[in-house]
Amino acid sequence: MSIDLRMAWRNLWRNPRRTLLTMSAIAFACVLLVFMLSWQFGSYETMINTAVKVQTGHLHVEAADYQDRQDMRLVIKDPQAVTKMVQAAPGVEAYTVRANSFALVSSQERTYGILVVGIDPAREAKVSTLKSIVRQGSFLEPGDHEGALVGRLLAQNLQVKLGDELTVLGQGRDGSIAALVLKVRGIYSSGMDDFDRSSIQMGLQAFQDAFTMEGAAHQVVAICQSLEEVAGAKAYMAAHLPPQKDPGLTVLDWKQLMPGLLQGIEMDLVSGIIFYIILLVVVTFSILNTFLMSILERTHEFGVLMAMGAKPGRLGRLVVMESLAMNLLGVGAGMIMGALITWYFQVQGIDLGAQELMAQYGIVGRIYPRLSWLSLLSGPAVVFVMTLLAALYPTRRLWKLRPVEAMNYA
């Protein structure tokens, strides 16, 4: 160990209380950043998975421009070929096929324009939370050609209850009139008002027959095992889409399907970054004050060393080594404690309360922070750089010292 390093280490512990307090401030900032970033990433993942499992899924395969135009003639002509490809995609956990059409739905009392969705009951239950949010009645059974699921708000607007009949009037894919009578099998409540008031769900086979789909569908919806798998699955699907002309097929991920959710996450992340900046500024100024006081207290000592031939550069290097050692110890301790705390809550979760209420809307009652290399390293790295820069600023004073004036400094 060099003489400068030994001196720096010795000087670091000349005032152990101040050193420990400074290191504690650095460590606390690192712990807070690691945990809060992991908390944000974990809560975002929970929000995304909850939202996509209500209806959209992680990925859609559909006809080009269908998302923008919602034209029922923009179909997947061979859904079976697409489902085989989706099933082979890496990371895909489950998939389902859907068909959609806007139509008028009437009860004995009222008529509303809504979206009619044809679903495969067996596969839909594996992809979405629709089955779990049915509050009254039951979910559709495979092969049910007469049943329908109705949102809670739409049922209120239509003034219908279980067993009541609904008349659906729309336009088939070939331009013909699509008319059918359905019975309310179940009433669901997702907690999303737009979804609960604007659509009904019916069997896919019955939908295809009524709307003359000729076996076609509008969407193949896939759920991945985790958000990390979405990009790889999307790339695979895009590269292996079955050939289909007029219209061609495209693959959309949840970011394209729910841009509002993505914008909300980005806004929350920006507000979090503002908080972190404020925290970093406070920590930086506390470190700056600590090192400035340290240099002022040791001005006489520096004057003596300079009178003995020590150069300002060597003294500056000595102070930088002290700050570097303090930084490394504080940041290292903060990263270890932050990782351990985050890991504990990542396993145990954080209870938000009202679990029964939240479960009614398909939301888990616990949030699980997600520790990653990004959340572990990014915050402490910024803390390290900021505090090191704060320690460098008072070091400039050494270049202005004169030995005689420094030795007489009180």
Compile the SSE list and pairings.
Layout lengths: L2 H10 L3 H41 L2 E5 L2 H4 L9 H10 L3 E15 L4 E9 L1 H7 L6 E4 L9 E5 H7 L6 E7 L5 E12 L4 H6 E5 H7 L8 E6 L3 H12 L9 E5 H4 L1 H39 L1 H9 L4 H37 L1 E2 L3 H5 L6 E2 L5 H23 L7 H5 L3
Walkthrough of the structure:
It is a single chain. The chain has 410 residues and is α+β, with helices and mostly antiparallel strands. It is 55% helix and 19% strand. The strands form two sheets. It has a six-stranded mixed β-barrel, surrounded by five helices. It is elongated, with a radius of gyration of 32 Å.
Summarize the structure.
The chain has 410 residues and is an alpha+beta fold.
Sheet/helix structural class? alpha+beta
State the major sheet.
6 strands, mixed, barrel
Give the proportion of residues in helices: 55-70%
What is the overall number of helices?
16
What fraction strand?
15-25%
Rg, Cα atoms, Å: 32 Å
What strand order characterises the main sheet?
2-3-8-5-7-6
What is the multimeric organization of the chains shown?
Answer: single chain
> Stretches where pLDDT falls below 50 for ≥5 residues?
357-362
What distinguishing features does this structure have?
two-stranded antiparallel ribbon; elongated; 12 strands; 410 residues; alpha+beta
